[in-house]
Write a structure and sequence with these properties.
2 domains, mainly alpha, single chain, Non-ribosomal Peptide Synthetase Peptidyl Carrier Protein, Chain A, two-stranded antiparallel ribbon
Length: 150
């Protein structure tokens, strides 16, 4: 039983689990904002434009004592589409940022390699890199007159 709790503690303390928990909390808060936008701004605007006034009851169907809330369903669809659009934009932006950072890192790495290649002496026989001042090449064993230099 002790091993089970140890594994559970390790699982919970992983970074990706904590990131996921933070994402769920922020997502819940964000959903509240989008729900308010839909129910308090968009839905009344849609009903004013369509002639339904500010009440959404025109979209609800009452059968006996039961009311089928099409307006709530439409609000949920609008909420989903807004959240999906924002998540899509965030992922697209993060991918673009990641690509830009990767390209910048590659440029910097290539520049460093070029500078390093320009300052690293090479064997005149096999053209392999050798340490500065070496009198023999460790690769081909050829003698480097006067020692290796750039």
């Amino acid at each position: 039983m002790s091993g089970f709790f140890k594994e559970f503690r390790e699982f919970i303390s992983r970074g990706n689990v904590m990131d996921m928990a933070i994402g769920v909390i922020i997502g819940g808060a964000f959903t509240g904002i989008v729900t308010s936008l839909t129910s308090d701004v968009l839905q009344p605007f849609i009903h004013i434009v369509t002639g339904g006034g500010t009440e959404v009851s025109g979209l609800d169907v009452t059968v006996g004592d039961t009311t089928i809330g099409f307006s709530n369903f439409i609000s949920a669809i609008i909420n989903f589409l807004i959240i999906a659009l924002i998540v899509f934009c965030m992922v697209k932006g993060m991918n673009k940022l990641e690509k830009t950072v990767q390209e910048s890192a590659n440029k910097l790495l290539n520049k460093q390699k070029e500078e390093e290649a320009a300052t690293t002496p090479v064997c005149p026989h096999c053209l392999e890199e050798v340490k500065a001042g070496a009198t023999r090449c460790p690769h081909c064993g050829g003698e480097i007159p006067g020692g290796a230099h750039v």
